[in-house]
Amino acid sequence: MYLAHFKLKRNPFGMTPDPNLLYLTECHRDALAGVTYSILAGKGFVVLIGDAGTGKTTVISRMLRYIPSDKATFSVLLNPTLTADEFLESVLVDFGIAEIPDSKAKRLVKLQEFVSEAHASGKTCVLVIDEAHKLSPEVLEEIRLLTNFENAERKLLQILLAGQTELAGVLNRSDMRQLKQRIAVRFNLQPLSVKEVRAYLLFRWAGAGAQSALPFEFGAIQTIASTSRGIPRIINAICDNALVLAFGAGERIVTAAHVEQAVRDLDLDHLDSPAAPATLPPLVLPKLNLPGPAASAQPIRLRSLEQYLPSEKVPLIMRWAGKLKLASVERANS
Description:
Elements: H1 26-40, E1 45-50, H2 56-66, E2 72-77, H3 84-94, H4 104-120, E3 124-129, H5 137-146, E4 157-163, H6 166-171, H7 177-180, E5 185-189, H8 194-207, H9 218-228, H10 232-248, H11 256-265, H12 303-306, H13 314-332
Parallel strand pairs: 1-4, 1-5, 2-3, 3-4
């Protein structure tokens, strides 16, 4: 609706998890590089936790694009509200197994044969489960048993559980202790800080092919940061609606009034998130210009992963992270 008005090539604040517009904070870079490395290194069981809207699904989408199809085969479950039988059937179907046996025992044998054959051919089998905080205890027990697919060298099935902050509580239950003990690596996505909100807006604006500076004034960005609590999905909703309001008024600058109206329209006045502070410090902004190619090219540290690995492995991780960052910078500026 407002693309031509603001001289954009695409929607900068869409609600779908577009991996091309994943803004990599240090936390998100750690998660993306770490999850990718953990899968390729055969760590076995990885957990990604973050509040609703912090970018878990987008991180997963980017990871799926990074790992070549000749290196791994994926089964991705986006709706985990299944029975134990339905869960196992869905895993087999998404791995591309056409003939599904009737009995559970035969299904497990089928899956074990599949992952063993894939390993023999040099490919890694990866099971990705989004919205994992909604999994039933019965399905979680099935997942625990699937972690037993291994040989003397490594796990044959790599499992990634991604879920909202409630997943941490699920894993901390006493009846889940056996499952929790199998977690090799764990990552947590955090909401954006106040400074990161501005950088996020600049990144998305540039990624949309903008030919002009970011049109959000100082007060508008302050309101976006405080109201959204740093949740990217909410930032997108507010910005998209504010741009529509500015376009409707024939204005090229998004003011605090536009943002406040968007917040009221979305009924976000009383938004609360336990993952972010209730009050935010004042935001001091320089002149808003589009970032150049080197604006987001910062060194990557994988502190969340280093604690699990021997010191001699760190350079390898850093090389992986560097490749991931280089690819993201190239895509952002292409």
